[in-house]
Amino acid sequence: MKKTLSTRIKQAGRGQIIYFGRKYESTDVFSRITGKAMLVHTKICRMKGFLVFSAFLSMLLLPANSVMAVDWEAMRSQMIDMDITPRGIWNPAVLKAMKQVPRHEFVPQHIRKLAYADRPLPIGEGQTISQPFVVAWMSQLLELEKGMKVLEIGTGSGYQAAVLAAMGANTYSMEIKPNLAREVKIRLKKLGYKVEVRQGDGYYGWIEHAPFDRIIITAAANHVPRPLLDQLKLGGKLILPLGNVRYSQNMTLIEKDSQGKMHTSQHGQVRFVPMVGVAQE
User: Of 8, 40, 192, 199, which one is least surrounded by beta carbons within 10 A?
Assistant: First the structure.
């Protein structure tokens, strides 16, 4: 039987998590289970000639010490079904990692309810955690194989590094902000991800562990740091948001062939926070 929108919202009021589309609007729904109001973000997009609705549940009015558990795993599955696979992410290793890595553990507590929304979120120090689709997209473009050595520039919350580690990469990550570097070391260790984190300016790479099969820069730059190109293996790939750091950039993939020649391809417009340090000089 085809369900009406009102039927679906009633289901949401019973605590079911339902996603259907893209742009957010808000509606309060009363939960019969908890006796509390729950915020439902409904979003509408047109897909193959019919409207698709989304209800994104957030227990905003529940007490902070509520014992009602959030089904984070179900939310990750919904994120993948609605925001990842429909947009061209097909790599099995990427999808598996995105389903396994708990993004809510990398998001500040006060905005944790938004952890599985497909949007970047602030993590402090003027930095953000990238939206899930972008993390999956960059990971897929790298064409990682298990056991490859990967250098990430811009650890941030550690979410991208955790996804790379979950894909089987030997992951090294650099974070220029001392507070973020200290926090992310603790977070990754607590969650069981084997990632080597170093505090410092990623512009110069990590020569002690070079060369790398893959390098990923998760901040906007107006040029490609030469030291990173030098630390890329023959046959390696480097990806970064390249362009005007104040406005938008192109997701750029650089491949170094067996002769050391660089080949560049661009994959779409993005907007990242700027790479800081020497990159801004």
Answer: 192
From the candidates 31, 130, 139, 157, give the one annotated as an active-site residue. Answer: 130
Q: What is the mean pLDDT, run by run of 10 residues, along the chain of 281 residues?
A: 42 36 33 35 36 39 53 95 96 98 96 95 93 97 97 97 98 97 97 97 97 97 96 98 93 96 96 90 79
- In whole angstroms, what is the distance from residue 242 CA to residue 229 CA? 14
Beta strands at 232-243 and 212-217: parallel, antiparallel or unpaired: parallel
Could you list the beta-strand ranges (E) of the chain: 23-30, 37-47, 50-58, 121-124, 127-129, 149-153, 170-175, 195-199, 212-217, 232-243, 249-256, 262-270
- Structural domains of the chain in order of their starting residue, each with its CATH number: 5-69 (no CATH), 85-280 (3.40.50.150)
Confidence (pTM): 0.76
